[in-house]
Specification:
Blueprint (H helix, E strand, L loop, with lengths): L5 E11 L2 E16 L7 E7 L2 E10 L2 E9 L5 E6 L5 E2 L2 E11 L2 E10 L4 E8 L11 E7 L8 E6 L6 E6 L7 E9 L5 E12 L5 E6 L5 E8 L5 E9 L4 E7 L5 E10 L5 E9 L9 E11 L3 E14 L1 E9 L2 E14 L15 E14 L5 E7 L3 E4 L8 E5 L2 E9 L12 E8 L9 E2 L11 E11 L2 E8 L2 E9 L1
Antiparallel strand pairs: 1-2, 2-35, 3-4, 4-5, 5-6, 7-8, 8-9, 9-10, 10-11, 12-13, 13-14, 14-15, 16-17, 17-18, 18-19, 20-21, 21-22, 22-23, 24-25, 25-26, 26-27, 26-28, 29-30, 30-31, 31-32, 33-34, 34-35
């Protein structure tokens, strides 16, 4: 579909009592696609060769489904489809395990489990411009297993510059043995550049989750999440020497009664690993909501020295959930939100039917918090933005967008219309843009009204965005099951 509208407005931002900074915002609308609105879905967005890709994954009939939408840089719709492959037969099955943008191509990661051969294989297949997954694949990794219910796990990571693909294979659990992980890295031609196997210190446990992160320089990190005897999160990070087949362990822990509540990860410009999040103080008796008491940060400074810091919030905050970690020069930002999910159980009358497992969810989104730290994790500032929404099942419009643009931390979130205008309108939500400097100066928010208002009956799906350049962010607007491309340029 051709571009149909372009509007520009210069909005004035009051920086201080004596200076004014002009912010020019440009909207460029594009084509439409059919989208997939599913409860309990996960979103992943990325850009390849100027094109924007939006992946929605969700469970359907005990199978993970991947729905792909894409647009060209000028906003033309390209892909709008559920990704499908032949699934094979019981105990000799194939399934899509993820979608990645790597090099100049979009790929599906495909897992093949063969019980007869006792092999778990991960391969990669290109996805064409129509959303068709190729039948031709390239094998990335294979390992053996004995029991289907203990067949290990694969994880994948693409470097921020899209030039390196890292694969980890968590080998099947063996009682009273150390955990073993296979690792491999691939270049843009899908050639393996290095392969190794490492052993993680300590006795293996079943209740662990491993994730892999690869940096632009080829640094590989494994993050292990497990639970202690009282049900609290325990984290460890491993800096992998791929050539030597060894790993340096960093324990990430707080002093009791403080325990990790939520966290997110990032990479610095020096390819260091950063893990930051919220912690809470465990008490004998808990009344009301779970309160985050403070912030913690870990990094492996210069890829050598462990830096671990924590500090209290101004006041404890209910349900404060880490959303994103961003690095901007000398400042690390932790974006967090007061978020709570409440499961609604089906009525007792549905017992014994499929409806008994058809859960619904209340999704509560409240204030946004932005915490600034220096590169050693020392507190610089704490800011918050007021909002309050409760929705059922689908909340893509209430998970905010966070990015660095024009040297500032930037957040775009939806807020209540009546806060910004007394005029009646067709949409109860208005997107608001706020920018914050590294000194903690929060500039007044810019509501998207008047010339910046969205098309009739559309809302901005703030969680569906791709930052294609420093000042260009490609969003999807939504109306029922229709997505519409919206390019926002900040100057």
């Amino acid at each position: 579909m051709n571009l149909i509208q372009k509007t520009t407005v210069a909005a004035l931002l009051l920086v201080c009592s004596t200076s004014i900074n002009a912010q020019e915002i440009t909207f460029t609308q594009g084509g439409e696609t059919t989208t997939s609105l599913k409860k309990q879905s996960t979103l992943d967005n990325f850009a390849i060769n100027g094109n924007s890709y939006y992946v929605t994954s969700y469970m359907e009939s005990a199978t993970m489904v991947y729905y792909l939408e894409s647009f060209s840089d000028n906003g033309s719709a390209q892909i709008q489809t559920k990704l499908e492959i032949p699934v094979g037969v019981f105990n000799n099955s194939y399934g899509i395990d993820g979608v990645v943008g790597f090099g100049d191509q979009v790929y599906a990661l495909v897992e093949h489990m063969s019980k007869e051969a006792g092999k778990m294989t991960l391969s990669i297949r290109p996805i064409d411009n129509g959303g068709k997954v190729s039948a031709t694949d390239t094998e990335l990794m294979v390992y053996s297993f004995e029991k289907v219910m203990n067949s290990g796990f694969y994880e994948a990571s693409v470097s921020p510059d899209k030039n390196i693909l890292a694969i980890s294979g968590q080998l099947p659990y063996v009682k009273e043995q150390q955990a073993k992980v296979k690792l491999a890295m691939f270049d843009k031609t899908l050639k393996a550049t290095v392969e190794t196997e490492i052993t993680l210190p300590g006795e293996d446990t079943k209740n662990k989750q491993l994730s892999v992160v690869v940096a632009n320089d080829g640094s590989v990190y494994i993050i292990k999440r497990s639970m202690n005897k009282i049900g609290e999160i325990v984290l460890a990070a491993y800096q992998v020497d791929m050539k030597a087949g060894a790993a340096k362990e960093y324990t990430i822990e707080l002093t009791a009664p403080s325990y990790i509540y939520t966290y997110e990860t990032a990479l610095s410009s020096n390819n260091e690993l950063i893990i930051a999040g919220t912690y809470y103080n465990r008490t004998t008796v808990t009344v009301g909501e779970k309160k985050a008491n403070g912030i913690f940060l870990f990094t492996n400074k210069n890829k050598q020295d462990k830096v671990m810091s924590n500090f209290p919030l101004d006041v404890p905050v209910d349900n404060l959930t880490a959303r994103k970690v961003l690095v901007n020069g000398n400042t690390i930002y932790l974006a967090a939100e007061q978020f709570k999910e409440e499961r609604i159980d089906p009525p007792a009358s549905t017992a014994g039917t499929a409806a008994a497992f058809d859960y619904h969810y209340n999704l509560i989104h409240k204030n946004e918090y932005v915490i600034g730290m220096d590169l050693d994790g020392k507190r610089k500032f704490e800011l918050n933005l007021s909002k309050d929404f409760s929705v059922r099942d689908i909340d893509h419009q209430h998970v905010s967008a966070y990015f660095i643009s024009n040297g500032k931390f930037t957040i775009i979130y939806n807020d209540q219309r009546q806060k910004y205008t007394t005029e009646s309108g067709y949409n109860y939500l208005i997107p608001v843009l706020v920018q914050i400097t590294n000194d903690g100066l929060m500039q007044p928010g810019i509501p998207f009204i008047d010339k910046l208002k969205l098309p009739y009956d559309y809302m901005l799906n703030t969680s569906k965005y791709v930052q294609s350049t420093d000042n260009q962010i490609n969003f999807l607007m939504g109306k029922n099951e229709v997505s519409k491309f919206l390019k926002i340029t900040l100057k």
